[in-house]
Amino acid sequence: MFSWENPDDRVAIVQMNSELRHARLELLSAECATHQLRLRFSTENLARYGEQDLLRKAIGSAAALNDFYASVERQIPQGGQHSPTTWPKLSQEQAVEFSASMSAYVREQRDRYFPSGMPLSAQSKAIMQSFFSGALLGRIHFVELNGGRIPEPPFFSEARELGFNLPEFVQMASLTFMDVILFSERISDSALFHGLVHAVQFQILGVERYCDLLVRGFLRTNAFFAVPLEAHAFALESKFLRNGLESFSVEEQVRLWIREGRY
Hints:
Blueprint: H1 7-40, H2 43-49, H3 52-73, H4 92-113, E1 118-119, H5 122-128, H6 134-139, E2 141-144, H7 156-161, E3 174-177, E4 180-183, H8 189-205, H9 207-221, H10 228-242, H11 250-259
Parallel strand pairs: 2-4
Antiparallel strand pairs: 1-2, 3-4
């Protein structure tokens, strides 16, 4: 049993939570992939026509994970458990209205911060060039807010009144508005990578489609970090953090998710 009073245990606890955070990111990616299966194919068709070896391995992995986390859950101190909740639904007209409001907000913030933003340093470009195109890195401007607050979209208060669990912007390490990335504190490699993934998504999808997918993804999950656009950014960030020397194309990964309908 760990003790926070033991310095060695404190180091181990920090490492444990770091690894738990990375595991959560990987689980989000798997959850998004499974959600797409659920939307496109019935369980009957999966059971009948899915490759049996793949199915059994996927089921075995899911069952093992469920057993492990259930055993952890049973030991969570009383008061730390959260009962499942339901969330409200929006009409088609409301969803379209929220998407349009989000698009207008993104454009406004981009135009507001771009003039005061700074281009990426040569060092940052060198670190990120194995994952992003030089053209994209050359267009990006960034702003360090150093604790300053970003104004939330005007419809957030309305959505919260309807019962949606929206994130607090002040708690987010970075926010991307097309080709502008805002950092709540000082820029870091991990936060920059995450922000650049969203810049690629904006570049390929366009502002309107990005915002529509963001809103509709949130309506399905009522959890910002489970929205496919966000989950994919976290999954790629996790891959980058595990082995920053292993190059891969973020643009190819984003285009793959678009082709597979995973956003």
